[in-house]
Structure formats: structure tokens, C-alpha cells
Amino acid sequence: MRAGDQSSRTFRSLLLMGVGACLMSAGVARAQEAAPPQPDDGLDDRALYLDAAEVARVGDRLEASRDAGDRLYARFQNHALRTRRLTYDLASGIATARGEVELTAPDGTTVFADYLELTEGAQTGLAVNFATRLQDGSSLMAATAVRRSETINELNYAIFTPCPICDEEGRPKEPTISIQAQRVVQDEGLRAVLYRNAVFKVKGVPVLFLPVFAHPDPTVERASGFLVPEIGFDRERGLSWEQPYLIVVSPSEDWLISPQFNTEVEPLLNLQWRRRFADGTVMARGGYTYARNFGDFDLDDDGVDDPPQSAERKHRSYLLASGAFDPAGPWRWGFTAERTSDKTLFDRYDVRDPYADNGLYHGDERRLISQVYAERQTGRSYLSFAAFDIQSLRVTRFEETAPGLNEFERDGALPVAAPIVEGRWEPGRLVFGGRLRFTGSAAALYRDEFVGAPVLRPEALPVGPAPSEGVDSRRATGRVEWRRSLITPAGVRWEPFLDGRVDVYSIAQLPAPGLEGEETVARGRATAGIDVSWPLIRPLAGGADLVLEPMAQISASTDADLDSRIPNEDSQGLDLDESSLFRVDRFPGEDLYEGGIRVTGGARATLRWDDDRRASLFVGRSWRSEAEPGLLTASADDPTVLYDATGLADRTSDWVVQGTFEPHDGVRAWGRATIDDSGDVRRAEAAVEGRWGRRNAGSVIYVMDDSNPLAGPLNRNYAFVEGSAQQFVVGNWGISGAGVYDLDRDLFVRSEVGLLFDDDCVRFEIGWRRDNTRVRPSGASEGAYVRLTLATFGGTR
Questions:
Q1: Which of 115, 371, 545, 788 is most enclosed, with most CB atoms within 10 A?
Q2: Which residues have CB under 8 Å from 702's CB, separation 6+?
Q3: Average pLDDT of the segment spanning 157-183
Q4: Which of 559, 661, 647 is nearest to 606 (CA)?
Q5: Are the beta carbons of 256 and 228 closer than 8 angstroms?
Q6: What's the count of helices (H) and strands (E) in the chain, helices before strands?
Q7: Residue 514 has pLDDT above 80, yes or no
Q8: Predicted TM-score of the model (pTM)
């Protein structure tokens, strides 16, 4: 039935009360995300749908009721109301709902009460035995909920918990964590939520009492104030307390001041500034201290170790800044600025996430990159300009007994790139039935200090002492590619392709005799070839199937011109795997490439059963008409020794073996390796991940590189095993552990073990951890750790 305007206004008042109640509940919990638009229910703003057994007018009162066995139902403005009895007093403008009141808002939030009263326009109102469950699963209950004005909501004898209040069978249970307060007031004018006599409980046991407590109103997106402190312990710094304080300047700008106080060393002041613009953002964070270097082992003239902190105090600081702007149109641009005064400042003060990936180019682990860049991208073209500089925090020579004397990579030995240009363009139509692409790139690299192998070939190295200046190089590359895909009725896939490239290099200050001036080198290569693959499937008994996919590539290229004067700046590393094995250019950069006649073959077998179960194995390798000694790499430990770091220098490449195994929903394993002709594994990665039960999990990862044949301080060979696991033993109590083991050094680089409690509402961990990374100036560090994560509140470490 449809009621008149007065009744409609009454129910709109109830709607406002429901919204107000939801705001109060969010005030105690947290701000909710905006609800998505709800579908139109066919009712306009002044209409209402009412399903009741009886609607009557008694004097100045409108009354709606339902039979004893059910509640009446009303729907208006996408809200739904159920209650036993609904009345509206025409004289006073007061609407009431009595008995099992249930009001559901468009976002799904439902408010429950025994009694709901509201004046006309929802200026004031009252709910008795109020309760609601928020979208994040948290619950809020109060003896009374009062809307005193348009800006003030009040809860009396309120309880809030982010944890389940019923077990899996629907029976009531004590929540793990709850907050109980005698009074909670949300004052939208003050933009704050105020508590009186707040008690924080764990499993019903009071653990903290605050007679007065306040925090910003969650309807305020951000507000100035203290954030959760970070507490830690380090052998050198002692007990550490970092207290962040947020200063909100405007809706688009804020500052974070976060001083770190330490019991054993001077404090470190951390600052962060963020600003959001109409088309981009800028973030800058930094730190400063005036302190001695602690943890170093500096030798006196007599060879005796100085005591810790005996060095002179100095200004020490870091800066990590980035900006990204994406205005309307095809162009976007940005920058990063990353620098630190000390190679080990981040390690000494345990600075959070200093190696974040920002900008167009990313620095490697323990390398900071400062850059400016601009990009232009459309559906068929791409163009970028960039320039960058790098600061390295890597250790090149370790001192096992005195980590403070580690030797670090020299910044002057790393190139300054200005500029780096990359571009590509594709026509809008197919050319001879295939895709045509033009690409180009250019790079100018400058070094302050000399760097020998493996950047320079042995023929370009000096005779005698190394020069003081570095080698500068400039390169321009142009390339055209064409590829077409054809599939025969039998399912064979044929992909013919053509590829051509031209490189021009200008190299200055080569140190070898006779090459001291500027050298210009031009080279080119043309390639034609075809890729062929034929997937075959065979059904097996029990619903399983086997897919076999042999694949091959045949290509013919002009001989590679690997001039010994060209530095190898961008092709020192090669990750040879199933995807890169069939590329025309398997090197990641432009400085090295292959030529001649090549045949690449491989096959992939995949077994699938029980829907989601599968196992796959790929084996492949490449053959070339002639060996290519220009692909050999000079060892950094002895430049006179050349070795095949890529597995492509001989007539036959290394074998590539790669596989996955998923026998169960909770178990996954994968691995890959490159194997030479003698059967030795040169590089390998393998991992096993598993989950059992509802929350138990574990993983093991193995990584090794044994491609360098020489043992020495610059040997890049390594082998690690990394593992982590958690196992629940009794109920919500369990144990956890993680570690990284260095197989070459026969020790744990990092390790931790702890006791944990997790009931899907709160996760608490306490344990012991040890950091034995060789880059730490003070050697190994160990101590206790505590981690706490609360549902809806975030976590700490």
C-alpha cells in the first residue's frame, strides 16, 4: 500500500535515524568506505512500501502493526525496516518503532534495537538496546543510543569489538578483544569522538582503563595526532622508540614527524612530506642525526681497534623523494631523488623500506637512484626520455672479523646516464598480413672512475696501472621487426619473422694503448626465421589429459659484430628460461647479441587431472652454426680468465629445464635450472609452498648461481635456502619461524622463531630474531620481537 506525505516524512525520519546510528557506530569503529549505488526499488523520495496487517488512525496517532507471529515490513529510499509496531504522532511529530526493530541501510549495515524513537526531521532521537554489525565484521552494542542534535550522537554503556561474538555454531562467545565505555560521544562540530571510562579487555579480562579518551571523528578522512609508536631493540642502538606524529595541513597535504630515540646512541629525526596535486603526487622523506658512527671497528695507527662510538660526530642524513604526474593526454613525467650520507645509515637505524621501486627505472637492491623522466604513450606508440644517477650501498669486499671495515662499491664506478631514450611505433594496419614494429633507443653513459672487467673486454684493458678517468660511451640503435602468425587446419602454429637492427657507438677514453682517443663503431644485423609449435592433447583414463607441445625456431642472421672496443653495460646478466630461449635477442640490453644460423628446440608436457591438479615440464636448448667467443665474459677476479656467464657462447647453449607441480589445492612446487653439457647445474631456483588445515602454511625456496669458475672476493656465485612456516598446535596457539641460510658460508643470514596466537581477529607474535648479514657494520644483531595485528585497526611489528 502507499501512505500519504505525512507518513512518508515519518519514514524518512527513520531513515535519517538509521544513518545517524550508522555514523555513531562508525565513530567508535572506523570510517566506512562509500557504498556503491543501489538499484532503484521503484519508489520515489516521498513514497513508501508498507506490508502490515493493520494500519489505523487513533486520534492524532497513526499506527501500523502485524500479527503476533511476524513483523511488519516497510521499504523507503532503498532502506528496509522490520518491527512489531510502528506509530507516528501527528501532533508532536514523534515516530516510534517497538519490538525487534531492524533497520537495514543501502550499504548493508543493519541496526537492531528494542525501541526506536525519532522526532520530525530526525533532529533528535533515541534507540534502546542498540546493536549493529559493520561491513568489516565488527560489532557495536549500547544500552541507549541518543541523537541529541544534528551534530552530536551519544552512546551509553557501549561495547565495541572487531572480533566475532558467536562461534561457528551460532552460540555466543567472549570476543578476544573489546572496548567498553560508560559513554561515547561523537561531536561532528569538534570533529572528534570522546570516551568516558573506557576499558580495554582481552578475553573479558580488563587490561587498560582510561578515564578519558578521544580520537578524531572517522567522518574526518585525516586528522593531526600521534600514531602507533614503533618499539624495537638492537644490540648497538639499545632500546629504540620511534613516535610518529601526523600533521594534516590540508586535504591534499600532510607532514609526518617521527623521531627515533635510542638508549645507547644519539636519536634520529625522520620527516615525511606528502602533497597530492590535481594530476600527480609528490612524496619526500628524510632523516637527520648528528652522531658518531657506532658499531664500526676503526683501526688506530698502532693497529688496535678503537672502542665503539669513538669516531667524531658528524652530520648524517638521508633523502628519499619521488614524484609522479599524469596530466590529461599521452604525456606523463616524474622524478626520484635518493641519497644518504653514510653507506650503512639505513642498517644502523633500521630505516623502513629505503629501496622502494619508484619512477621509470628502479635501482637494484642496496642501490639508490635519482632520476627525471618523461613518457608519451598511445595505442600504437611509446616514447620515453630519462636521465639518472646511482648511489651504491653494496659491499664488494667483506671483512668477516671486522664488518666495520667492509669495502663498498664506489659511486664513481657507476655510470651517469644522460639521456636514456626509448621509443617504438606500430602502423595501424597489418603489413603483408603481419605486425610491423619500429623501435629505437639511445644511451649516453659517463663514468668518473675507471672500471675494468667485466664491462671492458681484455683487449680494451690498460697495460699497467688503471687510469684515473672512466670510459664514456654513447649508443644509438634502430630496429625494425615483422612477425605473422598462421595456424593450419591440423593445429600447427607457424610464425615467420624478420628482424633488422643498426647500432652506432661512440666510445671515449678507452685505456688500451692506441685506443685513448674517441672511437666510433657501427654495426648491423639482419635476421629471418620462423617459429613452429604444435600442441597435441590426449585424453587419459579417469578424466585426465596430457598435452604435448613441441616447439622449434630456425633463424639465419648475419654474423654478430662484437667489437672488443664496445663496453658491455646492459647485457652482463641473462636469465635463460623458457620464455627467453626463443627470443631473437636473448640478452636484456643492446651491447651483446647473437648472429649466424641458430636452431632452438624444446618441448613442454602438461598433465592435468581432477580439474585443478596439474604438472608440467619443459626441456629445451639452442644450437648455433659457429661458436661465439665474443660472448665470453672476463672474470672480475682475474680479467685474463674468460668464461661463459650466459650459457650461449658455445655452439650449443645450456639446457633449460623448467617445471611446475600442483598435486593439491594447498601444495604448489616449481623449479628451473640451466645445465651445461657436462651435466653441471649452473643456475637453479626451486620452491615448494604448502598449506594444510585452515591456517597452517610453509614454504622453502632454493636459489643458486655457480656460473663463475673462479673463487675470489668478487666471485658472484651464491647458494641460499629460504624457509618460513607456521603451525598451530593447540587451538589458536602455534609456532612460527623463518630464516635464510647461506650454503656457501654455512650459517643463517637471518632467522627468527616465535610463539603466535591468531583467532582471525587478533594476531600476536613474540619471539627471537637474529640478523647476521655481512653488510651490517656491527656484525650480527639479535633480540626479541613483538608483532601485533588487530582486525580493523592494522598492525605493528
A1: 371
A2: 684, 685, 686, 687, 719, 720, 721, 722
A3: 83
A4: 661
A5: no
A6: 2, 49
A7: no
A8: 0.77
